[in-house]
Amino acid sequence: MSTNNEGSTQGGATADSGSFDSLMRENRVFPPPAEFASRAWIKSEMEWEAMYRRSIEHPELFWAEAAEELSWSKKWDKVLEGTFPDPKWFTGGKLNLCYNAVDRHVEAGRGDKVALIWEGEPVGQVVKLTYSQLLVEVQRFANVLKAHGVKKGDRVAIYMGMTNELAIAVLACARIGAIHSVIFGGFAAHAISDRVKDCDCRVVVTQDMSYRRGAPIKLKEIVDAGLESCPDVRSVIVYQREPKFETPMKAGRDSWWHEEAAKVSAECPCAEQEAEDPLFILYTSGTTGKPKGLVHTTGGYAVQTYLTTKYVFDIHDDDIYWCSADIGWITGHSYVVYGPLQNGATVLLYEGAPNFPEQDRFWQIVDDHKVTIFYTAPTAIRAFIKFGVDKVRKHSLASLRLLGTVGEPINPEAWMWFHREVGHENCPIVDTWWQTETGGHMLAPIPGAIATKPGSATRPFFGIEPAVLTKEGDPVPNDHGGLLVIRKPWPSMARTIWGDDERFAQAYFSEIPGCYFTGDGARCDADGYYWLMGRVDDVINVSGHRLGTMEIESALVAHPKVAEAAVVGRPDELKGQAIAAFVSLEYGLDPSDELKQELRQWVAKEIGALARPDDLRFTPILPKTRSGKIMRRLLRELATTGDIKGDTTTLEDFSLLAKLRDNDD
Ligand code: WTA
């Protein structure tokens, strides 16, 4: 457990209290529709059982067979070497992930198949790229990177909106063995400079602007602000999304993507990568103020994202696949770019907001492009429910055959709505549990084989051995909450935190010796189905986005008027969790509504709008234990229920309770 703070369980999802459990009891079961199962890769639970058993008893055989479905320029010597915290997969093997995602489909005669369908936010802007066209664009951009001095192993930061060019930039890095570090386009300037400096990126790829609810988001200007403190960045390559906007360009550092691409050849060979060569770094929030740069490597990540996409989405040649996540998150890396493209799928990318210009935009897109597989977040589903059922009923949605969710627990009622109103009761829903650290799906139903239960991520993927344990590492009986761990290494797991092997070992492998600690609470029912219960550490999940409470606290205390701050999550109907901040001001300063707004805005400016506190309360001091730890449990209770009834015996200053209650607004 987190040792920084007392009572570190978040958002009421206590892993060891019965109250959350009882809310989540759910007895409805939905077997795979017969028609779906008849054409699925895996057609029955029996077939699944046999494959799962074999994958656990003979993991090396199982993963070797999966790896054989991809192209390797040199076969591996050993499937798995070593174990936690630094297992190595497919050692001795050589491959290129861009080759597997693009070239090999063209070489197999499928170059005319559409790889990417881009739908811009302004209605009517659509750009389709076939696999052959994608191959040309990727090679050109790989040559642009080379022309800017990028070599194998160099880090390239990418800060863009959802465009085909973002996928192209990512694939171009993979092609030449550069390590991409994609920074979500919603992050603020400060977050960009932190990430650029942490892994020492010398080249940044960005775009002029992107549309969000009709308004331009000037990405390049945000990059410029971020790079003010990054003098080592020598090149900024800018994709021009919208020529009608003026974009400031810095002479000697900045260049336009299209001008650079016109100067280079359209042929660029793939670099031969070792299986364990790093593929990318992706930053995620942890329990300290500093985001962790998780490092994913090439071979194992390729194999698991390929295989999970194939089986969990049951992907076939005629599917039109749409994952609504941004490429800036792990879901976009694994299930917009690498997984589906390795499977030769047609992938849809959408630039904008779900409610622009109207609240039925997503359903319009599904019908316009005949989307067959739609993968989204529970928070989006809850927003659709709010928009009203007429928005979705206006559309046919007849092309859909499979639905998926990711990012947070889905409440059974939202699941039922998705099933009924979007899936018309004949699309299986795959609730996929996994993390930035795991690289690919870990718990998820195989849709032709495993019956689903609303709110459960169901059973483990092949080769994955989860368990629910007590803090001491003892097994928890069925139907009781505990800590979710993974017992054995899997191919797509992160290998380290950039520059900090020790922090990696400490954060994930010290809690329960011998196991990977997920940071999530869960229970397993008598049928072997897992039910996720939320984070058990100081990470909160706002609309499916992971945020560290410490990160937001650090931003708050960086404000000159703030003396101390504590941030907790509280349940929120729409976002899953909302951010509640408690702030004590520097001596002599008075709280005011104005200052409250200023501080909320400050956090948005420091980290990004997604981290803006929903509630912000002033308090003379924060509740602490006698040993000086902030009692977040009390703050959480106050933020959630408006009162404090829990155990306060370790509180240092009891008079504070009354003050906290008084401050409750
Ligand atoms: C949560 C996103 C319940 C969980 C892929 C995890 C989920 C964190 C689910 C990882 C799910 C993700 N059901 N909770 N299906 N999927 N989570 O790294 O708390 O952004 O630890 O990866 O999201 O968030 P991350």
From TrEMBL:
Ligand binding (CoA): 212-215, 331, 355, 543
Keyword ATP-binding listed: yes
Catalysis performed (reactions): acetate + ATP + CoA = acetyl-CoA + AMP + diphosphate
Modification after translation (UniProt): Acetylated. Deacetylation by the SIR2-homolog deacetylase activates the enzyme.
Listed EC numbers: 6.2.1.1
Keyword terms: Acetylation, ATP-binding, Ligase, Magnesium, Metal-binding, Nucleotide-binding
SUPFAM superfamilies with a match to the protein in the record: Acetyl-CoA synthetase-like
GO MF annotation: an example: acetate-CoA ligase activity
Residues annotated as domain AMP-binding enzyme C-terminal: 551-629
Binding-site list for ATP: 407-409, 431-436, 520, 535, 546
Cofactor: Mg(2+)
PROSITE patterns: AMP_BINDING
Modified residues (N6-acetyllysine): 629
Binding sites annotated in the UniProt record for Mg(2+): 557, 559, 562
Pfam families in alphabetical order: ACAS_N, AMP-binding, AMP-binding_C
Domain named AMP-dependent synthetase/ligase: residues: 108-496
Boundaries of every Acetyl-coenzyme A synthetase N-terminal domain copy: 49-101
Family per record: Belongs to the ATP-dependent AMP-binding enzyme family.
Function (record text): Catalyzes the conversion of acetate into acetyl-CoA (AcCoA), an essential intermediate at the junction of anabolic and catabolic pathways. AcsA undergoes a two-step reaction. In the first half reaction, AcsA combines acetate with ATP to form acetyl-adenylate (AcAMP) intermediate. In the second half reaction, it can then transfer the acetyl group from AcAMP to the sulfhydryl group of CoA, forming the product AcCoA.
Protein name per its UniProtKB record: Acetyl-coenzyme A synthetase
Species of provenance: Granulicella cerasi
